[in-house]
Amino acid sequence: MDNAHDANMELAQQGNHEAFRLLMEQHTRAVYKLAYRMSGNQHDAEDLTQETFLRAWKHIGRFDGRATFATWLYRICSNCALDHHRSTGRRPASIDDEAIFNRIASAEPSPERLAVSSEVAARLGPAMEELSGMERVAFVMRHFEGVPVESIAQALGIREGAAKHAIFRAVQKIRRAMEPAMSTK
Amino acid sequence: MNHLTEEDLVLLYYSEPAAAESRSHLAACSTCREAFSSLRQTLDICNSFEPPEPDPAFLASLPRFITPKVVDIAPRRSRVAWLAAAAAVILSVAFFAGRASRQPPVVVAGLSQEARARILTITLADHLDRTELLLTEIANSADPAVGGDRARDLVSEGRLLRQSVTGATGELLDEVERFMLDVANSPDNKSAVQLAQWRGRINQASLLFKVRILQSNLRQKEDKI
Q: Which site among B53, B66, B206 would you substitute to test the A interface, given the most A Cβ atoms closer than 10 Å to its Cβ?
């Protein structure tokens, strides 16, 4: 991160609201995208983004710079998503199939995108819906964010074996839901 | 020849360190290569999903929503700041009490009972946060250098806090201190056996669980103060 970012971080830790607002501005898009993957819909993603920044402000004194601020926010967001799933007692909403389809359809054609049939895209949403909160959060962290299993376990406060297991279950469910479409591709 | 399990293939797909051996097996086994190719095809499809950009109206409203709340909520001071503040108060009170009188009863002047309770609660909860983090790392890590300076810091902080707490909380701090002392005094290059023994101790004494419960209780108490 640049010097301005570090300076804002220092000021924010001293209680400067404006510095925190600037940090928030810089990280909102990334946090929102993560929240969207964790929750699967716009409404919850917006709620999770707000909650992430409120918690970050509340605990900014504990940020010790061992990880980057982005990673720290990312951990807060993951925990917010898990808390949200626990408190609502429901599975995260499915990814909007239409949104996926539109994005694939509107993207520049590439060999990979052209290979994605509409049937496969339509199956991804329901497949993600089948995942429990823990499975979804762990899978999103591993698959989309590239976080190693060991770090996922640390971030979620679970054993490494449990984190692996959550990812395996997620992969199994996704494969089960998507393979019929893959075989007809 | 034992073929790779689905779990092995998933670890391999994500290039996890545990998959190193599987990679050499894959090079020599066409059955596993085929299974891996099928898995990769399915998981690669998931990459097609990019979350949408946030709604511009949301981006515009976020600072308006957050800022008033941020102004209302004072950020919690860091553990070091609280410890420094608490230590400064204790030292100055002890100094002035010593000068003014040789009578022992020292009441911390200028600091209410509530303020002292708040300092202690927050400092203790922050200490347990850091303890939980290190215990979790030790319970999951194969890193021979895990612990070290952080364990030493926790021992020093724990001893300072131990003077102000009694009962079950004090007993838990003693238990944590004994464990952290062993970690702090161990060599940087710990053996796998040593790490396994520590994991065993953490599990057997439900150390992580007890730390989490106490920390959670303190956080709830902290929110009410």
A: B66
Residue in B10, B66, B76 nearest the CB of A53? B66
User: Which structure tokens are listed for A44?
Assistant: 């919850």
Q: H helices of A14-115, where?
A: 17-39, 42-58, 69-88, 97-106, 111-115
First CA to last CA distance, chain B: 63
Does pTM surpass 0.80? no
Which strand (E) or helix (H) includes residue A158? Answer: none
Distance of CA A106 to the CA centre of its chain: 23
Cβ of A61 within 8 Å of Cβ of B44? The answer is no
Q: Could you tell me if A162 lies within 8 Å of chain B, comparing CB atoms?
A: no
Give the residue carrying structure tokens 């600091």: B111
- Interchain proximity B76–A150, CB inside 8 Å: no
Cα of first residue to Cα of last residue in chain A, in angstroms, is 43
Please answer yes or no on whether A21 and B66 come within 8 Å at the CB atom.
yes
Q: Which chain A residue lies closest to B130 (C-alpha atoms)?
A: A62
Q: Are A58 and A111 in contact (CB under 8 A)?
A: no
- Evaluate whether A119 touches A184 at the Cβ level (below 8 Å): yes
Q: Flag if B7 and A99 touch (Cβ within 8 Å).
A: no
Residue B49 CA to residue A7 CA, distance in Å, equals 35
Q: Encode chain A (185 residues) as per-residue pLDDT tens digits.
A: 578 888 888 888 888 888 999 999 999 999 999 898 888 788 999 999 999 999 999 888 888 887 788 888 888 898 888 887 766 654 444 434 344 334 433 444 444 444 554 566 567 777 877 888 888 888 988 998 788 888 888 777 778 899 999 999 999 999 888 877 666 55
Q: Please say whether the beta carbons of B77 and B123 come within 8 A.
A: no
* Cα dihedral across residues A79, A84, A87, A91: positive or negative: negative
- B63 contacts A182? CB cut-off 8 A: no
Q: What is the CA radius of gyration of chain A?
A: 18
DSSP summary character for residue B17: G
Calculate the CA dihedral of residues B21, B26, B29, B35 and round it to 10 degrees: 120
